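To: structure desk
From: M.T.
Subject: fold request, one chain
Message: Could you run this one when you get a chance? Sequence is below, nothing fancy, just the single chain.
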Amino acid sequence: MTTQDKYQTPIPNAEKMRFGIVVSEWNTSITNALCKATIASLLLHGAKKKNIKLIQVPGSFELILGAQLLANKKNIDAVICLGCIIKGDTPHFDFISQAVASGIANLNIHHNKPVIFGVLTTNNLQQAKDRSGGKHSNKGTEAAITAIQMTALPRQI
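Reply: Done. Structure tokens follow.
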């Protein structure tokens, strides 16, 4: 099954699109795998390497500000947020997951441009591995395609 087979509509060409990627440094084995897949997918669908701006932030909570800084740039069409929050024994997971999801959602509306939620929220490390190149594919690829589709959407309306 190709990437295109998962989607009902054709994936637009990203040749003229400009992307910002903000990656959490927490759980780097997972977030690096997400990032590599994201960049590979953008390039596969026509994006130019020079049109991809990558920044790193300490953790998933900081993705919000990193994404805002990228979204503020006029030369960025879409921002992709990549992180991994693994559930622990305290409610910290719930607070961080909710804050990151809300913050990223708000950035979409505030900036009127796509800010993509590519953050894994898993119960354990194995689930994170499964979603970052394991048995459940790589969610970084999905985040890239979502960014391409959402960037193209206003042009179709």
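Reply (cont.): The chain has five helices and six strands. Let me know if you need anything else for the meeting.
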